[in-house]
Every structure is written in C-alpha cells, then in structure tokens.
C-alpha cells in the first residue's frame, strides 16, 4: 500500500527486470494481471495497483468532480514508488488513465501500451457521431437501469464489450464484485466522457506507444482506439 493524505493506494510488485506498471480496468483490481504476469516467468518486475474505488484504493472523486486527473495522480504515485523509467500498460479504463498520465508528463515513462481504452470523446472530436452515439446509447441505458434499481445493470456494459452473454459467463464472485462496484463504474464513465484530449496534445506524445484491441471486440471500441493510434505520432496499432 501507499499511504497518502487523500487515501490509500494499492501497490504490489513481483519479479525482476524491466519495470512494467500494470493498470487494470474498471470492476477489477491489480490481481487481474496475475495470470498475465505468470506467463512471463518473473522476467519483468511487475507493479500493480487498483483504480479509485476498487480493491484497497480509496475513492477521491465525486459525481460532481469525476476528473480523470484524480486517477492519473494515483498512477503517478505508483510510478514514483516504482522508480523512474517504467513501461506503463493500461487495460480498458486503466488504459485511458494511462494515456492521461502520458499527456500530463509528470513522471518518466519509457513506453505506453493502451489496451482497448474507452476513448469515447475522440469519436466526437473526429466527427464520427454515429460511433459516438453507439457509446452514448449504451451508457444512457446502463445508467437508467441502475437508477431504476436493476442490480445487474452493469451486465449491459459488459455485454456491450464482450457480446451477449459475456457477463453471465463470468464466475459468480466476479459478477458480484462488478455489481457491488457499479456506482464506482458510473463515475468511471463520467470521467471518460469528461476526458477529451486534443489532437495537438496526442500528437505531442514522444514516447513509443502501442495501441491494442481485440479482433472480435465491439467495432465502436476498435474504431476509437484506431483513431487514438492515428493521432499519436509514434504509435503502432
């Protein structure tokens, strides 16, 4: 753990070698990276954390102030503890936060890996309003279902990404945790919609960047990430 005046931050590390800071997505904790790290057989120093409101990381945002900067600050604290010159790897909402860290340029990064970030605002910035509306329709329905008392409303969001039945296929323990943290995930989406980096800012990123999507992922997510890669000079998609 990292103890700060604003609250605790999950911190764990394993292995040795080049340092990878691995940032999970919503409804998850740093433990999500264990199966991935296990395949590397200890040849990397893997540093993990949990996002605000998940695991042991204290929430710092409010519905009135969902700024992604609050998330970036905790990842920067993790990087500062890990030491300079890390490779930053983020998945889903964690990927969007990792992008924000790179744009803030307050810590030293050797590279950035973006794994399917919910970069919704780049769609609107590029005038791809049909794709943007696809995200809006999903989140509007999801928010409304939760407000109406539907305990498993978050399943709508999971199925949007993973296809019909994806949420039902998860182990009960994982589904339960997602439902328990739905209110946190709603703030995550508010953060995503409030984060609109300019083309100029993205083009100014100087470190190597790799942007990844799944070949069977939602086409809206694929398109948003393709646009990210196009906007970053040294990015590969």
Terminus-to-terminus distance: 34 Å
- Helix fraction, binned, reads 40-55%
Rg over CA atoms: 17 Å
**N to C succession of SSEs:** EEEEHEHEHEHHHHHHHEHE
Oligomer, anyone?
Answer: single chain
- Count the beta strands: 9
Q: What's the story with the biggest beta sheet?
A: 7 strands, mixed
SS class: alpha/beta
User: For the largest beta sheet, what order do the strands appear in spatially?
Assistant: 3-5-4-6-7-8-9
Shape: globular
Uncertain segments of ≥5 residues (pLDDT<50)? none
Number of helices: 11
The whole-number mean of residue pLDDT values reads 96
How much β-strand is present in the residues?
15-25%
Your description of this structure?
By secondary structure, the protein is α/β, with parallel strands linked by helices. 47% of the residues lie in helices and 16% in strands. The chain contains eleven helices and nine strands. The strands form two sheets. Strands 3-5-4-6-7-8-9 form a seven-stranded mixed beta sheet. It has a two-stranded antiparallel ribbon with strand order 1-2. Strand 6, helix 3 and strand 7 form a beta-alpha-beta unit. The two termini are 34 Å apart.
